[in-house]
Fold Uroporphyrinogen decarboxylase.
Amino acid sequence: MPGLLLNTLRGENSGKRPIWLMRQAGRYLPEYRALRAEKGGFLALVYDTDAAAEITLQPIRRFGFDGAILFSDILIVPYAMGQNLEFLAGEGPKLSPRLVDHALEGLTAVPERLSPIYDTVAKVRASLDTDKTMLGFAGSPWTVATYMVAGEGSRDQHETRAMAYRDPAAFQAIIDGIVDVTVEYLSGQIAAGAEAVQLFDSWSGSLAPAQFEKWVVAPNARIVERVRALHPQTPIIGFPKGAGEKLAAYARETGVDAVGVDETIDPIWAARELPEGMPVQGNLDPLLLLSGGAELEKQAHAVLDAFAARPHVFNLGHGIGQHTPIAHVEDLLRVVRTWQRQA
Ligand code: CP3
């Protein structure tokens, strides 16, 4: 029996809100930190499929969220495309050679770097209750490209934005390569048991409108079309963080089944402007989960009220912060689960 989260992503509004949190598996959980210390680095955890399955399940055991999101990373795709990947403590991810000074054609693909991730999905699905939804994910081409080009995270993605203007043909080839591997990666996750998938476009907010159409909307639309042709039953959530008012065009033009809304967007605006009946996900400010208290409850109610007339998956506007107190997550769950729409 599909659970509340999957039904909501399929367009049902039962009045009850499913909840999961982006980055729900991770450093704010002591059980994650313990396993990470035991196994070494982040990538070692991702490729130890028993450990990765265990980490995926940790937040479900502790909080009973409606969805379990695969423990992996968006940068597994560049790793499978042949870049070296390292997560250095305190420095974030490093990819080499960086494509700002190395041609894409010079990379040798390593597709076997994807298959362990599918094993993790299968292991999680096998031990997850049937009313919980297994969520797969990938990064969107623009966001993944910003790491591949610069070799690391950057504040405003300027090297990648400059390359896209300077050499659109070379940049298009990078995007096309990411699209192909992402379709394969998501299809593999779905075949292994993922029941819905999310496309994370964390840096879509840095693009001018015409570039947003070209590098966010168009490649996401191609991924959606191809994944849907292979897996028509699997809802696809698109999350173009920072899209602002461009979220409405993204929702209409990419073909995604549901959209993630970040915390900078007024949920009343989103409820009004997004296509009628489209499920939405979001959008509590993660900092409220850090600070807690009466304001957390008040703002969670505002989100619940604003999205009451639509299928709505409760979530944050972006990932949960590593210093978030566990007690505040428990408070939020209580608020969301006991909320009833005021007549
Ligand atoms: O949501 C989840 O719990 C599932 C797992 C997940 C991770 N990364 C695990 C992770 C997901 C969905 C991601 C997505 C991801 N990864 C994004 C898009 C979403 C977003 O947050 O904007 C991006 C941009 C990345 C790339 C990435 N991975 C960065 C920049 C970093 C370093 C910064 C940081 O937060 O530590 C990572 C590492 C990473 N990915 C960690 C986790 C749990 C932390 C690893 C550790 O030190 O233990």
Summary: Residues 245 and 265 are 8 Å apart (CA to CA).
